[in-house]
TrEMBL record, chains A, B:
Name under which the protein is recorded: fumarylacetoacetase
Origin organism lineage: Bacteria, Pseudomonadati, Pseudomonadota, Betaproteobacteria, Burkholderiales
Protein source organism: Variovorax ginsengisoli
Domain called Fumarylacetoacetase N-terminal: residue spans: 29-116
EC number annotated for this UniProt entry: 3.7.1.2
A GO MF label: fumarylacetoacetase activity
Alphabetical UniProt keywords: Calcium, Hydrolase, Magnesium, Metal-binding, Phenylalanine catabolism, Tyrosine catabolism
């Protein structure tokens, strides 16, 4: 159980002026970790903390002696909390560190950010019952939501090597597809290229093989969260995915945002999760009073699209959808950790647990084009008159996320964006 | 295309006498790479080459300057061939290296071997049409072999963190299962614990993201092969696997043999692969004259079981089944590489491609207990009278593999074994 402390005080302000601007993603209450280097350099990436529009270089400030984020992520909860307290004290108004730490600041606009850590294993879950139902209808009209869904936090392994940093383009994949009325499959560029609005939960301390993590301890093993876009080739997926699950339809690229927003920073945005009336209660290894009372997190999510035509015309991205995790997720992050390890599977610092596509119940809350366009049958119309069923070359897709509530300072997850190239 | 050269000469003998014994897995024609350290030590693992019952320490012999197998695996084909030629020349009878290299030898019985490299991403394929059909019948009686099977080399991502070295025990996993007649799932130890007889193909040089590897170049990216046992919890698998594939039923442990037998060593054991009459030909990206003529490899595989009772009675392991890859695999290793990257997915040195369970067409050629016991309905009877449908605590399962043909010296893959603990 996380308890609010002085680092969450809404009255705290930073001596970094940009951190105090209303709507800023990175106030002194946030303090997310990322990896950066001077833009255009080939230096090794270093660990930094986002504050306003600046990055604090943790090594230059004498706060850590490593450039390896995975080492930092392996810290105990007590060590993490101590580090957070030190950062909060040093960055707040009136701190005696101001003179020294100002020397270790650089503008975010002057740095290159990257994938926040070395990702060992990547697992993708399927935590939105709305997404599972809508997509299930398209792949299996007679059997949309499978009988295991409300018992098993469905997940599968993904590809770590092809996870890319925000801002990095990727090539439209090629592959096998088979139209329903075709006798044999054909080969060519994906024609139903989609995004998936996800969160990426990163593992901090791991567990030894054969030693499950109980739900009561599960959150101690979560370091932080990012935005995550699991680009998907729906036509390839439909033909390849049975019986062992999606493969080439997913592993050509996934994009992750640069800033790890810690569990400590998320503490004011915890939420209860009660299952809808009539749904079975989780098995004991997935259940605890704490998990029910505050195992969920309230994070607002947005999807934005900017087509090449919009970009050339200087038009801002348009919002495709928006939802909140409390409306979308059927399983809490703690439940994902407890489930993943209940068989003895070992998690390691830097492992990534994708939430799966976070679609809320409403039509405007869908986290993929497959849902928004009813499987490609109903094109969406953009403000400039362009239409989309799936993504076209030159499209830039951006995910944003933030937490807000009465009595707390808003914190942001930043954004992740990527552009499709032909 | 690999051409036989002096390193394959069947007349070659080694000055390491044990390498010349008939039936030895590691004659001078083999020269597989592994990682070792003195048994009982906590030293860093070093790179060695198996020769007879000895290991040649490559750094001590002045042959490499790294302890990092992944660095060695990233070498070009020309570099690998040069290294093989040097090892072959130095280890053969009459070599001028004998005096110097003898100082860099140690007995295999005196060392600890481990997983042969740092495994980045692990993919498991499904290359035996016989396994796919038999298992498909059990999970989907009305629909055993899915329509995509003969077109798509079906594969999915697995868990790298839980891959363990030969000889390492593992704990029987716990998890959710649901009996067909039960209303709700229950939780407890796996009751249908199985092994899977597989080969592990390891990637050498990788490819850049977005740049597929053509089938003509595919084998240049394969470094070598090991035995691989993908332990499986069938009762957990049956309940969890839809719609995204197996997850906790697989990721508690997989065991890999210590020696990477190189593509160069396998050259004399290449085989043609012709599809059965009436089967569709592969799409062009999976097809080439070379792949048809010699894209397959002839490797004989055996499964051995020793129960705890047998061990206590001093009884040798009993053979459960045996097959040959040419009878079991519907796709060649080159086709797996071409398929995996055709969408732009990037492979990296040390990545592992599991073959999937290699079951041949005959009943005695099945690569899992699920097949041998007809899904648990027909127990197999062991020589001591014990019966097995699935694995019991204390059972030790061993996979062995070797290549033999007229006119070539037999080479072995060694073995991988593991014991189930309660």
């Amino acid at each position: 159980m996380t308890i609010l402390n002085a680092t969450h005080d809404p009255k705290l302000r930073s001596w970094v002026a940009s951190a105090n601007v209303a709507g800023c993603d990175f106030p002194v209450q946030n303090l997310p970790f990322g990896r950066f280097r001077p833009a255009g350099s080939q230096d090794a990436f270093r660990i930094g903390v986002a504050i306003g529009d600046q990055v604090l270089d943790l090594k230059a400030a004498g706060i850590v002696d490593t450039d390896d984020m995975n080492v930092l992520m392996a810290a105990t909860v007590a060590e993490r909390q101590a580090l957070r307290a030190r950062l909060s004290e040093g960055l707040r108004e009136g701190s005696t560190q101001q003179a020294a730490w100002s020397q270790a600041l650089c503008a975010q606009s002057s740095v290159e950010l990257t994938v926040p850590c070395r990702i060992g294993d990547y697992t993708d879950f399927y935590t939105s019952v709305h997404h599972a139902t809508t997509v299930g209808k398209q792949f299996r009209p007679d059997n949309p939501l499978l009988p295991n869904y409300k018992w098993v936090p469905i997940g599968y392994h993904g590809r770590a090597s092809s996870i890319i940093a925000s801002g990095q383009d990727f090539k439209r994949p090629q592959g096998q597809t088979k139209a329903p009325d075709a006798e044999v499959p054909s080969f060519g560029p994906c024609r139903r290229l989609d995004y998936e609005l996800e969160l990426g939960w990163f593992i901090g301390q791991g567990n030894a093989q054969g030693m499950p993590i109980a739900i009561a301890q599960a959150e101690q093993h979560l370091f932080g969260v990012t935005l995550f876009n699991d680009w998907s080739a729906r036509d390839i997926q439909g033909w390849e995915y049975q019986p062992l699950g999606p493969f080439l339809s997913k592993n050509f690229a996934s994009s992750v945002s640069p800033w790890l927003v810690t569990l400590e920073a998320l503490a004011p945005f915890r939420a209860a999760f009660e299952r809808p009336a009539g749904d079975p209660q989780p098995l004991p290894y997935l259940d605890s009073p704490d998990n029910r009372a505050q195992g969920a997190f309230s994070i607002t999510l947005e999807v934005l699209l900017q087509t090449e035509k919009m970009r050339l015309a200087g038009e801002a991205p348009t919002r495709l959808s928006s939802t909140n995790t409390t409306r979308a997720a059927y399983w809490t992050p703690g439940q994902l950790v407890a489930h993943h390890t209940v068989n003895g599977c070992n998690l390691q610092p830097g492992d990534l647990l994708g939430s799966g596509t976070l679609s809320g119940p409403g039509a405007s809350e869908a986290g993929s084009l497959m849902e928004l366009s009813a499987g490609g049958k109903q094109p969406i119309v953009l403000p400039n008159g362009e239409r989309r069923t799936f993504l076209e070359d030159g499209d830039t897709l951006t995910l944003r996320g933030y937490c807000e509530r009465e009595g707390a300072v808003r914190i942001g997850l930043g954004e992740v964006s990527g552009t499709v190239r032909g």
